[in-house]
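ABC transporter permease: structure tokens wanted.
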Amino acid sequence: MKQRDAASLLRLTLLVLVPLWFSCTTDYYLSSGNLFALTQNLAVVGLVTLGLMLTMIVGEFDLSIAPMVAVSGLILAKTGTDSAVVGVLCAVLFGLIVGLVNALLVVRLKVSSLVTTLGAMILLSGFAFWIANGQVVPYNNFDAADIVDQQWLLLFSPRSLTTLAAFVLVALLLRFSHLGRDIYATGSHRRSATMSGVRTSAALYFAFATSGVCAALAGSLLSISLATGSPTLGNTLLIQAASAAILGGVSLGGGVGTPLGVAIGVLVLAALNNGLGLAGASSASTLLVNGAVLALVVLISGELGKRLNSRSQHRVV
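Answer:
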């Protein structure tokens, strides 16, 4: 068994044990209302994490996703009063443009993605406070909220199904398309990939553009549900998304990661945070537990993988 297989086994074990523990120790954890709330939260975190995953696979990182959620929510609130579809399209278009600009700086000017997206993060944060005048902007299209949050089959809604569809599309693209193979090759060894004819520039543009679109779509859908746009909306989403991606097996070094692994990472953290909330844990305690779980998973999966590799080598000898 390889180290990657050991990590996958550990993630699946957590996916079973975490809900099992809280279903036995807290009330209402498995109630339909709580499970629906859980999938609603997954829809937002999942979309943001999916976009971040792509930038990590190509060996980069997008720090601008959290303020992008806030700005897109405000754009929705400003432009989608009469039509939520128009507001969502405006927000997604803005996310696409910002993502392409980030990619342009990384590809053409060879600026580090951390520097590029840090600048974008600062600019977007300032832009969010400017267009909102430092206040919450109401969004009174309640019909749109009723549609987006309509409960289907007890657990799902158009919001959560949108995220599910995005995961399926990205998974198919990475698995079966030439662009998907280019994305993995770009993250594995960019110079060798370029010399081999891999379209590394296209992979980078796609990764950052998709990251911007996913964050913008998440922000606009969240603002519809909350009936407000806020310059501080999604402040903790970068930490949540990065944690879920790493927990889901995405490598910071690039070239490794799958939508399925990320989905499991998002599910584990969401189940954990939901259970801690029902148990009355404070925000500080929740952050501490999240950090401890992430660190333990990384350490244990690494050590377990090394031992399994060592055993397999001894058997071969």
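The first strand starts at residue 137 and ends at 138. The chain has a mean pLDDT of 90.

Cheers.
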